[in-house]
Amino acid sequence: MNNSIAEINTYAKKWVLAAGERIKESFSKTLDIQAKSNPNDLVTNIDKETEQFLIGKIKETFPSHRILGEEGFGDKLMDLSGVVWIIDPIDGTMNFIHQQRNFAISVGIYIDGEGIIGLIYDVAHDELYHVVKGQGVYMNEKELPELRERKVSESIIALNATWVTENRRLKPELLAPLVRNVRGTRSYGSAAMELVYVATGRLDAYITPRLAPWDIAAGILMVKELGGIATDLRGKSLNLIKENSVLVTAPGLHQEILGGYLKDGNW
Ligand code: 2AM
Ligand code: CA
48 CA to middle of ligand 1, Å? Predict the structure, then answer.
C-alpha cells in the first residue's frame, strides 16, 4: 500500500463532509424516488449522486483502491484484498425522504479485510462520527468514552418491528422474553445511526436479522473500538462481503443476550 492511513483518512473526512453539504442543498429540491427490491426499499437521485460523487473522488486520488457501494457504481468484489471503501451514500433512505433526518452517510475503509477507518455523518445534526483503529472514536472533535458493562435489565435495545414480525427466523416468540426484560426498545430506521447510538451509549444493543455490508462497515468499527461486541446472531464473526444477521452490544450484554435469549434460534 502506497498511501498512509493518515492520508486516506484526511481525504475520506473531507469528501464525506462535502457529500453532506451536497445532501443539505438537496433538501430544498424535489427528489426523484424509485423502488428497488420492493415498494418500501427506496432509492433517490441523491443516493445515486452521492455515491457517484464519493467514487469519483476516490478513483481520481487513489486509483488502486476498490469500492463496494450500495447503489452499484463501485466494483464487483469477491474479496476484501487491498484497500476497500465500503459506502452507503444514504443509510436510512426512507427517513431521508420522509423526515429529512435520522439518516447518515456511512463509509468504512478496510485494508486486506481489516477495518481501519469508519465515518458516519449524521448530516441533519452536523455530527461526524469518526474512528481510526487504535486511535479512539470521535463525534466531531469530542472523543467518546469506552462503553460500560451492561445488563439486559438496564438496557435499551434497538429492533426493527417490521423485520422482527416478518422474519422467518427471528421469531417474535423468541424475542418476546428479551423485549419484556429490557428497560426499553427503540427503532430508528438507519443501521448506521443505530450502531453509532450503541457506540455513544444511547442504545445498549442492536439486533437485526439481515443487513448488507455497507449498512455496518463503519459502525461496527466504532462499537468495537470502544469495547463493544459485534457478531451475527449466532455469535460468529461478521462477513463484510455478504449479508449478515447482526447482534451489536455494549460489553457484558452480548453473552447474556446470545446465551439467554437467542440460543434456540435457527439462524
Ligand atoms: P438503507 O436505508 O440504506 O436502505 C432500516 O432499518 C435499515 O436497514 C437501514 O439501514 C436500511 O438501509 C437497511 N435496509 C433496508 N432494506 C434493506 C435490505 N433489503 N437489506 C439490507 N438492509 C436493508
Ligand atoms: Ca442506502
Answer: 15
What is the full per-residue pLDDT of the chain (267 aa) written as tens digits? 568 999 999 999 999 999 999 999 999 999 999 999 999 999 999 999 999 999 999 999 999 999 999 999 999 999 999 999 999 999 999 999 999 999 999 999 999 999 999 999 999 999 999 999 999 999 999 999 999 999 999 999 999 888 877 776 777 778 889 999 999 999 999 999 999 999 999 999 999 999 999 999 999 999 999 999 999 999 999 999 999 999 999 999 999 999 999 887 766
Note residues around ion ligand 2 (Cβ under 5 angstroms): 70, 88, 90
Alpha carbon of 4 to ligand 1 centroid (Å): 32
Nearest CA to ligand 1 atom 14: 211
Which residue's CA is the closest to the ligand 1 atom numbered 15? 41
- Closest approach atom of ligand 1 to CA 91: 3
Rounded to whole angstroms, the Cα distance separating 48 from 57 reads 14
Phi, psi of 225 (to 5 degrees): -60, -30
